[in-house]
């Protein structure tokens, strides 16, 4: 039995000494005369003097610019801060200058394409060829290049080639429906589309050529469609309004390195456009810059993932989630990226662990729900595979319970650096995360990340320790959005982050910071349960309910009713062969009352066959709450952004039956 805050791991002296954090501390001492004893002091310095910190990282990573920067940070406010004004830095160039000839840059596993790898030499060759083709096709700096590709080496090459010529990248994974793709791409007017013929998931092929044709024909500015055979090597481009070309025709031979040049890009030149989850309304197109992403990713992946040459990083993701961009960016450290395309539990539930053993993955990322599945299935990977090369585990996408963290030590191996990190697509990074020199306590994230001036704010704007508050950032970070696409006056950007506390980034998560600087994320503040004036994180309910063998999954919301009342239903997806009867409902109530408080006990428990998730694996608490309050489905949720659109049907019908706020009488 594990309890919240139990000590799970302490780094050995050798592990801490070899870490990139220790190397940075040594470098700061010798090169900058900044003598800091440990990570907490390093973090404090990084936010006390953010300009000195980020300039130190520029030098530490050896970044250079053909034109000097006039200042590290001008106009240090949010929004509006400007970083390294005058500097030029190209994201793709910074990745490929770290090439390690003869060594593996990318490991990949795919249900459709099997297993393989790509060396740094081959990666560089393909990027130069595709970038040269893009230039020949008339793509200029600032043009948008988009993809409808699975998690494959071709997607990585296309991203780096796009960045190399100064064009702007954006991607959707092929499990997105046509409507969802157009919600994103129609906003940005792309010139080139890379699209696969389909993908394979759970042993089933999904042909996407019809969807591709519809997407191409609905994008009036699109000039080229690059067809990538993925399911069938003999597949041909579909007929569309755009000119088409086969992937194999883009890279028939090498482009000599001396004959290729990367387009110089200003520090804040747009690199890519990523999107908010899009559960309601049009997704926000978030624009990040070359310099901010290169610098922030280098920081995150060196010091909070501890990557370097000889290591490799995996996180289960699709090309439609920013975690894919982060995996690709692991190449900035000289480490290898590990890609997986397909169902993580096919053909066996332990498919990802087998992949990790085969590729020698050193940093492994997955979701707490995947760990929960392993636990329920009784799978102990350490008994099946050699996972000794895994030195770090990251549980991301939702808060990690103490039980999920303890499971990793019992079932992977007991000397492992384990972390849950939390950030956002908004900054393509983490606000709170891991440090390899700190201990790991059950249920807690180790620290605030370097350069992130993160605090838990009360409603009146006071920074709190040991209490639940709004996650805020009080100073700018280089990877904060340059702007939202088509948000010409910045109104949508400001409304998204700065309305609650002007000049302070409010992220929308509830956070606790303890006196050691460790952090707990309690869930989105807009999905927080508020009962009798007490705020409850949904993660607290899920931790207790989903620990029951009888429960596969669950979702809880709290509805504020007229007159100050409320109604909190819990929706339970039972394990196979289990009924949601009075006995189970009583067990749930007793556990929630005993492990949490009476306020955690739902007003009613309902059996459901599906829990709705977004394509990025987040429970759709806010859309369900809106549906139950009578908001029309078209305004409450975007089905094309869902992992299983049919999962919403029950809640739509439930909301229509229980209208006029009579839910508590149902």
TrEMBL record:
Q: Which GO terms describe its biological process?
A: lipid metabolic process
The Enzyme Commission number assigned here is 6.2.1.16
Which GO MF terms does the UniProt record name? Answer: acetoacetate-CoA ligase activity; ATP binding
What keywords are assigned to this protein? ATP-binding, Ligase, Nucleotide-binding
Q: Which PROSITE patterns has this protein been placed in?
A: AMP_BINDING
Q: Which domain of life is it from?
A: Bacteria
What does the sequence similarity comment in the record state about its family?
Answer: Belongs to the ATP-dependent AMP-binding enzyme family.
Query: Protein name, please?
Result: Acetoacetate--CoA ligase
Which species is listed as the source?
A: Gordonia asplenii
Q: What is the lineage of its organism?
A: Bacteria, Bacillati, Actinomycetota, Actinomycetes, Mycobacteriales
């Amino acid at each position: 039995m594990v309890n919240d805050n139990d000590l799970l791991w302490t780094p050995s002296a050798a592990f801490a000494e070899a870490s990139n954090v220790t190397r940075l501390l040594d470098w700061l001492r010798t090169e900058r005369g900044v003598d800091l004893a440990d990570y907490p002091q390093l973090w404090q310095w990084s936010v006390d003097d953010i300009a000195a910190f980020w300039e130190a990282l520029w030098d530490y990573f050896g970044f250079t610019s053909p034109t000097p920067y006039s200042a590290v940070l001008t106009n240090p406010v949010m929004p509006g801060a400007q970083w390294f004004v005058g500097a030029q830095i190209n994201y793709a160039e910074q990745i490929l200058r770290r090439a390690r000839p003869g060594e593996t840059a990318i490991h990949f596993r795919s249900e459709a394409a099997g297993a393989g790898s790509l060396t740094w030499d081959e990666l560089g060759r393909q990027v130069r060829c595709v970038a040269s083709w893009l230039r020949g096709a008339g793509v200029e700096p600032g043009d948008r290049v988009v993809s409808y590709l699975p998690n494959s080496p071709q997607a990585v090459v296309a991203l780096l080639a796009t960045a190399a010529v100064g064009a702007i990248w954006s991607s959707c994974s092929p499990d997105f429906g046509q409507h969802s793709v157009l919600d994103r791409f129609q906003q940005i007017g792309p010139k080139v589309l890379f699209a696969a013929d389909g993908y394979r998931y759970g042993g089933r092929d999904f042909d996407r050529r019809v969807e591709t044709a519809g997407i191409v024909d609905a994008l009036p500015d699109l000039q080229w469609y690059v067809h990538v055979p993925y399911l069938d090597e003999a597949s041909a481009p579909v007929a569309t309004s755009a000119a088409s070309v086969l992937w194999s025709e883009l890279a028939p031979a090498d482009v000599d390195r001396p004959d290729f040049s990367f387009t110089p890009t200003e520090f804040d030149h747009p690199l890519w456009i990523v999107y908010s989850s899009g559960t309601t309304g049009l997704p926000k197109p978030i624009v990040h810059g070359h310099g901010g992403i290169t610098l922030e990713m280098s920081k995150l992946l060196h010091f909070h993932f501890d990557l370097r040459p000889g290591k490799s990083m995996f996180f289960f993701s699709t090309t439609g989630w920013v975690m894919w961009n982060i995996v690709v960016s692991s190449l900035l450290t000289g480490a290898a990226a590990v890609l997986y395309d397909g169902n993580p539990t096919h053909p066996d539930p332990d498919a990802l662990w087998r992949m990790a053993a085969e590729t020698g993955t050193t940093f492994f990322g997955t979701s707490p729900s995947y760990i929960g599945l392993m636990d329920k299935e009784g799978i102990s990977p350490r008994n099946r595979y050699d996972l000794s090369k895994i030195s770090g585990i990251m549980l991301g996408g939702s808060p990690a319970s103490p039980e999920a963290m303890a499971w990793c030590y019992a079932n992977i191996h007991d000397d492992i650096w384990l972390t849950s990190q939390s950030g956002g697509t908004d900054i393509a990074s983490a606000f709170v995360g891991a440090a390899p020199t700190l201990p790991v306590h059950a249920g807690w994230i180790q620290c605030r990340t370097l350069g992130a001036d993160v605090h838990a704010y009360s409603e009146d704007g006071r920074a709190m320790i040991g209490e639940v508050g709004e996650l805020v950032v009080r100073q700018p970070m280089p990877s904060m959005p340059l702007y939202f696409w088509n948000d010409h006056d910045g109104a949508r950007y400001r409304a998204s982050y700065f309305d609650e506390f002007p000049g302070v980034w409010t992220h929308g998560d509830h956070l606790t910071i303890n006196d050691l600087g460790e952090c707990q994320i309690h869930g989105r503040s807009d999905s927080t349960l508020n009962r009798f004036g007490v705020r409850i994180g949904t993660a607290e309910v899920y931790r207790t309910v989903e620990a029951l063998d009888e429960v596969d999954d669950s979702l809880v919301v709290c509805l504020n009713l007229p007159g100050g009342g409320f109604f909190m239903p819990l929706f339970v997806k039972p394990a196979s062969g289990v009924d949601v009867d009075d006995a189970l409902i009583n067990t749930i109530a007793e556990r929630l009352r005993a492990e949490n408080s009476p306020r955690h006990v739902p007003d009613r428990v309902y059996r459901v066959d599906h829990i709705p998730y977004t394509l990025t694996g987040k429970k759709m608490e806010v859309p369900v709450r809106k549906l139950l309050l009578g908001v029309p489905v078209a305004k409450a949720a975007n089905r094309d952004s869902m992992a299983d659109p049919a999962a919403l049907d029950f809640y739509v019908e439930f909301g229509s039956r229980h209208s006029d706020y009579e839910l508590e009488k149902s």
